[in-house]
Amino acid sequence: MGKVDILISEVGPRDGLQSITNIMPTAAKKQWISALAAAGIREIEVGSFVPASVLPQLADTAEIVAHGLTIEGLQIAVLVPNLRGAENAIASGAHKISIPLSVSETHSLRNVKRTHAQMLEEIARIAELVNSQPAHKRPHFEVGLSTAFGCSLEGPVSESLVVQLAEASLKAGCHEVGLSDTTGSANPAQLRRLIDKVWSAVGRDKLTGVHLHNTRGQGLANALAAIDMGITTVDASMGGIGGCPAAPGASGNIVTEDLVFMVEAMGLKTGVNFNALCAARELFAAAMPNTELYGFTPMSGLPKGMEIN
Ligand code: ZN
């Protein structure tokens, strides 16, 4: 596998599916994940270790992780809400664990039923567990600073609080922080400003990825601002599926297909084969016929003479 300039972290199987009530059969999820990997996607967030009663759609996460681990070269990421989830994630063998820390405390209480102080204690406990694993079994542990650009419950979010929580999370022992526009409120200037502020506080190597939603159509503009700054990992969801059940009005992630087109058209490598990515989209559409898929490039096709492979 060649080197990529921008790592596209596909979050459709987690962020995408979690807001869809029709349960995708486990076998179909496995085929979809295999097809995404075959298209050259290098990292996939395959599920979330939450109780099945909370998110029945993701109840098969351990089995999906096990399947993902059989695919050579594929980085398997999972979301966890707490220490219990992290224990399950480590037992599953996932390569990367993310926990959401909502900058909006109202959203945090709604999403994971914990205050900032309680979440930071939980993050410290998870970090201790992660860092006590032998090196070859130790997952990368990231804290995703959600609602970092605004919250549909609280409204504007303080940028200095984002920086403070980034510092506190790293002090608690996580390996990296990410910036998440959970509700799709961000604009490119805000992305640049906040990335710069967090980098100044914690260093560039402690923030390398962003998670964006396309709620107000700003997703690709925001992704471009982040990439221009030097961010190297961008989360996206095939077909733009997704949302957050705990944040009213949050819609899907930025569309993987359109992001691949933008990045490759600018001369940067994603490692993705566009036609194979569209085949994964068709496979998903056949398994989940009632789910609306978004994206302009899959509809219009690549410009004449252009190939992405
Ligand atoms: Zn999200």
CATH class: Alpha Beta
- In CATH, what is the homologous superfamily? Aldolase class I
Number of strands: 8
Basic shape:
globular
Largest sheet: 8 strands, parallel, barrel
Helix-and-strand structural type: alpha/beta
Rg computed from alpha carbons, rounded to a whole number of angstroms:
18 Å
* Low-pLDDT regions: none
Share of helix, binned: 40-55%
Intertermini distance: 12 Å
Short account of what is shown:
With 309 residues, this protein is α/β, with parallel strands linked by helices.
Q: What features would you describe in this structure?
A:
By secondary structure, this protein is α/β, with parallel strands linked by helices. The chain has one domain (about 5-300): TIM Barrel. Helices cover about 40% and strands about 15% of the residues. The protein has 12 helices and 8 strands. Strands 1-2-3-4-5-6-7-8 form an 8-stranded parallel beta barrel, surrounded by 9 helices. Strand 5 (about 140-145), helix 7 and strand 6 form a beta-alpha-beta unit. The longest helix is centred in the middle third of the chain and has 16 residues, at about 115-130. The structure holds zinc ion. Zinc ion binds next to loops.
Q: What attributes characterize this protein structure?
A:
309 residues, alpha/beta, TIM Barrel, 8-stranded parallel barrel, 8 strands, globular, binds zinc ion
